[in-house]
Specification:
Layout (H helix, E strand, L loop, with lengths): L3 H33 L2 H9 L2 H22 L7 H25 L9 H25 L3 H7 L2 H6 L5 H19 L3 H9 L2 H21 L14 H26 L8 H25 L1
Length: about 290
């Protein structure tokens, strides 16, 4: 027969997981609302390439897995636990997206299955990321301290250089998914000259560096004693901007925004989208 301590421990674990699920749904809604209420995202579900959509859905799985290992619904230690959290987050993203689209009247009973499945599938990607982020951004510090034992704190995965770049990619992808489908990215690029593009790229890089190192935001990174100011700029800021450019290129390609464009025009659009993507990458280093 289970002891009182065992029952209390089980009850605490269940309560922690339920709180994590609730935060996940809140995060899915909070972080995906801009896309759920964007007309371009609705129409993409009708016509975008199913091969590119499938690739996006498949890439989202390892992304959620690594995120879960760091900031999942519970303080996971094994990759099996992280995989469970990743699947749960994906499921919550799907359910939250479908529910809101039905509520808004975007998905109707007479709509062909391939259309509403496409719409929900697109929206489920940012919603699932939001569900995972909800654990770290919507939780209370006291809850986290209560839920996390001393052993778990010791075993929590460290922040390696590869993980830093990965987190920047997550932040860049999250903002890119919101803006890549819109016509404004192409319109802004059309109005810009190469000098505008160069200036925008420089401003993006400076903002990235300032957000993390120069402005002393909470969660920012401080240079270690004796390190040159150029060390962080070369090691993190410039690679981070390259990550933002690559993520922007992928997002635009996924949503078919670059099809039929000349190389120079495509580059301008990528630089435009890399501006918010770079901010998202910097923010990820602050909050993740």
């Amino acid at each position: 027969m289970a002891s009182t301590d065992d029952r209390q421990s089980t009850s605490t674990d269940v309560d922690a997981f339920v709180r994590g699920i609730a935060r996940g749904f809140a995060g899915a809604l909070l972080f995906s609302i801009p896309m759920l209420m964007t007309m371009e995202m609705w129409f993409l579900g009708f016509y975008m390439s199913r091969e590119r959509l499938l690739l996006l859905l498949l890439l989202n799985l390892p992304l959620l897995l690594v995120l879960s290992h760091r900031i999942g619904f519970e303080h996971t230690v094994t990759w099996t636990q992280s995989a469970r959290d990743a699947i749960v987050a994906y499921g919550m993203g799907i359910l939250a997206s479908a529910a809101i689209l039905v509520l808004l009247g975007v998905i109707t009973i007479d709509m062909p299955a391939d259309q509403w499945i496409g719409m929900v599938a697109i929206q489920a990607v940012p919603a699932s990321i939001g569900a995972m982020l909800g654990r770290s951004q919507l939780s209370m510090a006291d809850d986290d301290e209560d839920d996390e034992s001393e052993d778990e704190r010791e075993e929590k995965p460290g922040t390696s250089y590869a993980i830093e770049l990965f987190m920047m990619a997550v932040g860049a992808l999250f903002l890119s998914l919101n803006l890549a489908p819109t016509e404004e990215m192409i319109l802004v690029a059309y109005k810009m000259t190469p000098w505008h593009a160069l200036a925008l790229a420089l401003v993006s890089i400076l903002l990235m560096h300032g957000f993390v190192y120069a402005l002393a935001f909470r969660g920012g990174h401080a240079l270690q004693k004796g390190q040159s100011r150029w060390h962080a700029f070369i090691r993190f800021t410039l690679p981070g901007y390259i990550v933002a450019l690559l993520v922007s290129l992928y997002a635009l390609w996924t949503f078919e925004r670059l099809d039929g464009m000349a190389a120079v025009e495509s580059l301008l659009v990528v630089i435009v989208l890399a501006f918010p993507a770079a901010i998202g990458a910097a923010a990820a280093r602050l909050i993740l």
